[in-house]
Amino acid sequence: MNLTYGIKDKPKFGQLIVFALQQLLAILAATIAVPGIVNGATGSEMSQSAALFGAGVGTIVYLLFTKFRSPVFLGSSFAFLGSMMAAFAGAASAAAGYAGFIIGAIFAGLVYVVLAIIVKFAGVKWINKLMPATVIGPTVSIIGLCLAGNAIGDFNGANLLANAGIEVNTYASVCIGLVTLFVVVISSVFGKKMMKLIPFIIGIIAGYIVATIITIVGLKTGDTTLQFIDFSVFKDMTIFAVPDFTFLKGIGGLKDITGSYIATVAVAYAPVAFVVFAEHIADHKNLSTVVGKDLLEDPGLHRTLLGDGVGSMAGAFFGGCPNTTYGESIGCVAITGNASIVTILTTAIMAIVVSFFGPFVTFLASIPSAVMGGVCITLYGFIAVSGLKMIQKVDLGENKNLFVVAVILICGIGGLSLTFGKITITNIACALILGIITNLIVSRKKDDAPVEEKAE
What we know:
The protein is 71% helix and 3% strand. The protein has helices at residues 13-42, 48-65, 81-89, 94-122, 125-130, 133-145, 148-156, 158-164, 170-190, 194-197, 199-221, 246-250, 259-291, 296-319, 327-336, 341-354, 358-366, 369-390, 399-414, 427-442, 451-455; strands spanning 74-76, 323-325, 418-420, 423-425.
């Protein structure tokens, strides 16, 4: 695709701040959702501000390892939710549980380091052979498609009821989401210059305004289902506050760490890292099609793995959550055509800075889920479509190609996942593994074309 800003381009300072804010808004909801989910499931008190800080630090580490050649933001990984819950539940004390988050991230990061060393010496050609377009294309698509339910749940308010027990007016929620969605689309398609580059900011502002109006109506009439924004959160906020970093909460629990607990944490985290490895490759293959160069070759898969692994360790040290490459970030790059590394770096710095600034964090947290649902329909949709674009040149008239794509799509969208004790192989990983196996089986079939045709 044609990029407005290439990887090495540097937007003007004023534009840069706006672009970085847009990236931050794109990754925000998912990044702070992970600690919220863990808190709800375990009774822990992980800090969402610290998770945001950790995401910023992890991204900077990633950029350093990739020599500032891969424009992607790292955020809290949902794949490790079960691992984090197991680490906290199996700890002798709450403080030991927080220490367990860091220990687990170290084990996961070490898996990435080992894989990076293997790739460094073995190269990436075996990966391209193992995962051609027939495998990686549909896998990228299901990453977006499997997130579709979450986007629609935010869009119509169903997620609020399921996760927080808050009931909202479905029609009002859809109205807010539609305004956000169409403003994003119109700004991106018909916008000129700057407007075309910041469709998400414009869409979020428009959706927030509509949500504010509906909330005021709800407050006036006493209808709680119309109150999408909780303005009370702004009353008790502090202007400046140091995030409750995980290492500070976990240092007192080191005395409670035992060998058996470390083994439990290792078993909970390390295998999941192998699963996320597959998604790491899919994300970078996807981003490669967006920026027009193979990131597995330059800066190299070994560097992206090291950046992701060490970045996860650094992110968990501060925020408790292992990090991973974010599809929302890649979608933002694809839609806006802005692949500037400087933008990603500024986003990371902004995430670190705003984690100390109470009003901004509070405002970001107050953005209604309906607004983010409207945004995520486009973000997740672009991920799905970019995967389909990868298989455009694949001959689906050949049954051997058709079966590989079919197996991945059906297993991924159908939600096939396997759990072994505390280890869960996600539907995306299962689909990818089955796709690879299917591809290896059908690739043994020889070409039916006559020898003369082969010669031609």
